Amino acid sequence: MPYAEDGRSQSKDVAMNPAKVGRPLRHQLTKRIAVTQCAACHNGGSRAAMNFRGLMEAPPEGPQTFTYDQDLLHGHAYTRQTPDVHFTRGLACIDCHTEREMHGDGQVYAKRHYEVEIRCESCHGTPERLATGITAQGRRLRNVFVASAPNPTGTVTLVSKLTGRVHSVPQLATLATQPAGHEPAHLAKTECFTCHTAWAPTCYGCHIQADYTAYRTPVTVAFDHLSGAHATRGWFRLTPGVRFADPEPVLGVNWRGKVVPFVPRAQPLFTYVNAEGRTEYAFRKLGFAHNPIVPHTVVRQSRTCESCHANPRALGLGLFTSREHPKLGEFRQAPDFRWDRIVDEAGHPQQVTTIEGARPLTRAEMERIRRAPYKLTMPAQGGTAR
Fold first, then answer.
1. Rounded-to-integer distance, Cα 244 and Cα 251, Å
2. Looking at the structure, do residues 183 and 265 belong to the same domain, yes or no?
3. Which of 131, 159, 174 is the last residue in one of the domains?
4. Residues 6 or more apart from 357 whose CB is under 8 A from it?
5. Lowest mean per-residue pLDDT among 104-118, 132-146, 372-386
6. Residue 101: in which H helix or E strand, if any?
7. What range defines the domain where residue 271 resides?
8. Are 130 and 154 in contact (CB under 8 A)?
9. Which residues lie across from 377 on neighbouring strands?
10. Of 126, 245, 341, 359, which is the most exposed, with the fewest CB atoms less than 10 Å away?
């Protein structure tokens, strides 16, 4: 039963008060689930349903902060970014993701990532073969159709579950010339979206204060729905971090053993005030983490070869300090502290990951990436270099 993003009904039903929130669009069940319905939950974490539409969560300012009454989408302001090519072509989340991925298969998984069965290859195939319409779990996609063999034109179509529109699905195997990076050795170690991601949501730093002062006169800070009363002590977010749409995100290895973009999972700095009102510590780094992500910002144009192979930051060695982002100086770390450094030159992790099997690149992997031959764009007489 779909809901509008403002939670108000658009029905003419007299029982549906259009002025009240929390009402469905209309009294009607449907299988045609729009992206906005998915975004009701999937706007946090990896922010997939927002990225897909080209919306990046912006730093809160003034009346946008949580201390003010506000009427913002999911409680956030957003900046416009490049949307996913699948979104611009009219596809919705349900056109790719299966009922098992959304409703489960009867098993409990530690992370939702482990149940995702759709792959880029399921619809677009590989440079060597056409798509089969088969998921990673061996199930046939019910809305993807591959023409019977022989199929010299490489005809593969997808019927949108949302609109019913028939889409022709481009096939890698039918390209006259394969682009750089489509070599078998490269694809064996790299997910397709690693190169074809336009940007990834990135946020460094966030100052949180836990104030447990035993005030003589209680100060109500938040409503505790478990106790049914206002809390008299609590946690406060004092300073938001630096947020931006990263066009060349850091790389690491996902649980499938493939190189993918990594983004900060959480980079909170904590200040703790005890019951006596004394600050026991301030701006302590706790639980810094980077995790693999499927940004859902796929575009036809890939990131450049040199943005990975000639870029220490892409390897996870870090670049951003308070010199590059002056706002990070508010978090009182050493001036040379690299917020995006997830591994050192020897391959030792500098931040944790919360996805089992995911990790930064090893020293050997970093060396292979540096040494790998790749096409470099450089100024040359009369045009583009190799």
1. 17
2. yes
3. 174
4. 254, 255, 256, 257
5. 372-386
6. helix 99-103
7. 179-384
8. yes
9. none
10. 126
